[in-house]
């Protein structure tokens, strides 16, 4: 059995991502992204699952900073998880949920459900917890509270709460990307069912003349008909005026086109580092044995 | 006196940003980014200061989502604040700070100081609070705790704590960008001292063929020698395969070049929206009457 580290606590979207691809393995929650990456570098764990894009649990900047400046840990997979927040209460309060006086959740989750909370529970007081699952745990521990939590389906299961209103977040189509890191590059993650494509992530440094040089960089991809799915500029830590780019290409490393683009970029004076070449997986929400209950609206 | 809304609570980096440009005005903390923007749209406040880039307090995705999908509130200024985290204790414990047993802070701040805490205070237990300033408040309220907080200089002042170790974050050159929003475009923010430049932020939508079309978009800027300082692709909320770009140009809207680039992009079939054209300000850390104490190392 492998040890899979992830950004905890239990009951968060990162755990949902980890469970969806590593069911049956030993899952080990870590308190912070750097602690999880350090453990992987030290070989205390075999794989790490951490958020790459901005989410209520983590920070893209932190993950990228540590991937680029501190560790050389290849990305071996990406997992996209739909961010679906639900309103949940202790089962004894499910009938009278409209009368609840207090709502608990992580500050970002409260913000994501701003319109719902303002419209449907205008009189409720809002209280912050350190994670969405901590809010669910609180309600589980003290059934006497006339309160609801905003959290995900995993937290509802874990703490025996009843979901009384599904998808209470303001915007649809919210997804968060998590990456799976390993000590060495690997193509082990290939479950056909949930595979949505492949990706190669490059870090390209560009010492000066941002717009002209970036235009050149994109030429190297455009004339080879290599499709990009993401481009993001980030300032180097070394000073103002130096940038690097994180570029996602929608295919695995091949023998001709991608190596050709990389060679062309290096000839232009750019630095190129391949952060990973890996399959993209999609995590469906219904994990394990969730028994669906009818939802009163 | 104007009412300036900002993402609270008091003692956070967002308050530092707000104080640095709106000293003397009435500052009103809001619990969430959407609540602050709603209040501005409803004219309950005159200006709003919210984080635009990823930070321990907020989320770029949320700010951009609400700016693009919900409100039409122009950016009238940008404030960059250096993110400097310090280790602080109750004054009665300043001598024995190396013996503290517990460290309190926001989870992202704890993560940002991972190396320092692992090296210097390996035996201390880590505890999470909802904001860095909440950690400082906790120590202020209960001097009997043998504990330290990781927070900023404003929180140390506000809660009368002694900074025993400065700049305990792992990476230097951490800055966070905040934006000032108003109901209407304005050039009112022009304090010469801290002005580092100007910026125009465009949202460009690109229906298909990401890499080829983006290459064309950049041509419109490159041949006019318009310098970009940031480019970021984001998926539209309407479905997979549609993207928009947030592009920063390092100058104010002019009469010829920028309107020419916009017209060219529109002729190529892109949608263009100007999110703001505004001065960039830099917030120095020493605000108000901070009395510097010697720092034991």
What features would you highlight for this structure?
alpha/beta; Alpha-Beta Plaits; D-Maltodextrin-Binding Protein, domain 2; 9 helices; disordered C terminus; 5-stranded mixed beta sheet; homodimer
Structural commentary:
2 copies of one chain form a homodimer. Chain A has helices spanning 13-22, 33-41, 60-70, 107-112, 114-120, 132-141, 153-158, 210-222, 257-267; strands at residues 3-7, 26-30, 47-51, 75-82, 86-89, 102-105, 125-128, 147-151, 162-165, 175-181, 195-206, 228-235, 243-249, 271-282. With 297 residues, chain A is an alpha/beta fold. The longest helix of chain A has 13 residues, at 210-222. Chain A is elongated. In chain A, the strands form 2 sheets. Chain A has a 9-stranded mixed beta sheet with strand order 2-1-3-10-4-14-11-13-12, sandwiched between helices. In chain A, strands 7-6-8-5-9 form a 5-stranded mixed beta sheet. Chain A contains 9 helices and 14 strands. In chain A, helix 1 (13-22) links the parallel strand 1 (3-7) and strand 2 (26-30). The first copy, chain A, starts with a strand and ends in a 15-residue tail after the last strand. Chain A has 3 domains: 1-82 and 174-184, D-Maltodextrin-Binding Protein, domain 2 (3-Layer(aba) Sandwich); 86-165, D-Maltodextrin-Binding Protein, domain 2 (3-Layer(aba) Sandwich); 196-277, 2-Layer Sandwich (Alpha-Beta Plaits), CATH 3.30.70. Chains A and B meet through helix 2, helix 3, helix 4, helix 8 and strand 12 of A and helix 2, helix 3, helix 4, helix 5 and helix 8 of B. Chains A, B: GO terms for molecular function: prephenate dehydratase activity. Chains A, B: InterPro entries: ACT-like_dom_sf (IPR045865), ACT_dom (IPR002912), Chor_mutase/pphenate_deHydtase (IPR008242), Preph_deHydtase (IPR001086), Preph_deHydtase_CS (IPR018528). Chains A, B: This is Prephenate dehydratase.
